[in-house]
């Protein structure tokens, strides 16, 4: 659902999505910049918990009218994790 709505909005310089990835971004860098000696890589996984989930849901509701979708999204967003379980699955609380 999200990909069909938002993927067309991404510029062609966005990678790490369907049909894009490490190789496509490296190819593009080489084509546009030539040979580089170094690159910076950022990992934003740890930023997920800082997202205002209520605001994100409001933004998504401007484009999507599907109660089942939002039920599923809210279950994912607000699921807890068992204490002491390292890299274990998420559970509803």
Describe this structure in words.
The protein is built from four helices and two strands. The mean pLDDT is 78. The protein has two domains: 41 residues, no CATH class; 43 residues, no CATH class. A two-stranded antiparallel sheet has the order 1-2. By secondary structure, it is mainly alpha-helical. Strand 1 and strand 2 form a beta hairpin. One of its GO terms (cellular component) is mitochondrion. This is Putative nicotine oxidoreductase. One of its GO terms (molecular function) is RNA-directed DNA polymerase activity.
In short:
With 93 residues, this protein is mainly α.
Major sheet details: 2 strands, antiparallel
Structural class: mainly alpha
Q: Radius of gyration from the CA trace?
A: 18 Å
Q: Give the count of structural domains.
A: 2
What's the overall geometry? elongated
Helix content: 25-40%
Low-confidence regions: none
Give me the side-by-side strand order of the main sheet: 1-2
Strand content: under 5%
Number of strands: 2
Order of helices and strands: HHHHEE
Q: What does the average pLDDT come to?
A: 78
Number of helices: 4
| Straight-line distance between termini | 26 Å
Oligomeric category = single chain
């Amino acid at each position: 659902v999200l990909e069909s709505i938002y993927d067309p909005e991404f510029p062609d310089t966005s990678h790490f999505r369907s049909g894009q990835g490490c190789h496509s971004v490296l190819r593009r860098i080489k084509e546009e910049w030539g040979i580089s000696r170094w690159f910076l890589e950022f990992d934003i996984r740890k930023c997920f918990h800082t997202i205002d989930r209520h605001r994100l849901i409001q933004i998504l509701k401007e484009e999507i009218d599907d109660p089942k979708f939002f039920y599923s999204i809210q279950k994912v967003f607000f699921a807890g994790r068992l204490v002491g379980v390292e890299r274990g699955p998420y559970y509803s609380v």
